Amino acid sequence: MILSGKEIHRQIGLGNILITPYDEKLLGPNSCNLRLHNELWVYTDPILDMKKPLSTKPITIPEEGLVLEPGVLYLGRTHEYTATDKYAPQLSGRSSIGRIGLYVHVTAGFGDIGFRGYWTLEIECIQPVRIYPMVEICQICYYEVQGDYSLYEGKYRDNSGIQASLIHKDFLYV
Q1: Which residue among 1, 76, 113, 159 sits deepest, i.e. has the most Cβ atoms within 10 Å of its Cβ?
Q2: What is the separation, in whole angstroms, between the first and last Cα of the chain?
Q3: What averages of pLDDT result for each successive group of 10 residues across the chain (174 residues)?
Q4: Dmax of the chain from CA atoms?
Q5: What is the DSSP string of the chain?
Q6: HSE-CB of 161 using CA atoms within 13 angstroms
Q7: Contact 104, 93 (CB under 8 A)
Q8: Which of the residues are catalytic?
């Protein structure tokens, strides 16, 4: 069952959901909008090799905006830090963002119960799009979990910002 916006607000008050900084004006009927931080990363390796750590370079989004180009994968992050040990979070792009051909996450929109950190956004565009820091770029919703569960303890937990792919760590166990 998905939590309503009012229930998200209540659970924040109870300490079961953390969104910081929190602004009640960002709540919707069953989600809370999250904003884009002012930093992006792009990969600098000509070939992205899954078995190797990948190199990135930072790009700052100025107040006057930054034009994103098609064919480039930009890694961004939410301005807000989120955490919950009680609900399964899911991140989706806002429809207004999708309607200008901007994809907020390539495939990684579902979070694990116990995830805490900033959400890394895998951003692509269909045609050139000017973006701005602090735009409400995505929305987070929360689902109740039924049955016994374990908290997420994986490689992306407790991050302090944008995270490039860590898939190379998966090959350590093969």
Answers
A1: 76
A2: 36
A3: 98 98 98 98 96 97 98 97 96 95 86 93 97 98 94 84 90 71
A4: 48
A5: -BPPHHHHHHHHHHTSSEEES--GGGB-SS-EEEEB-SEEEEE--SS--TTS---EEEEE--TT-EEE-TT--EEEEEEEEEE-SSEEEEEEE-HHHHTTTEES-SS--B--TT-EEEEEEEEEESS-EEE-TT-EEEEEEEEE--S------STTTT--S-----GGGGGGG-
A6: 6
A7: yes
A8: 122
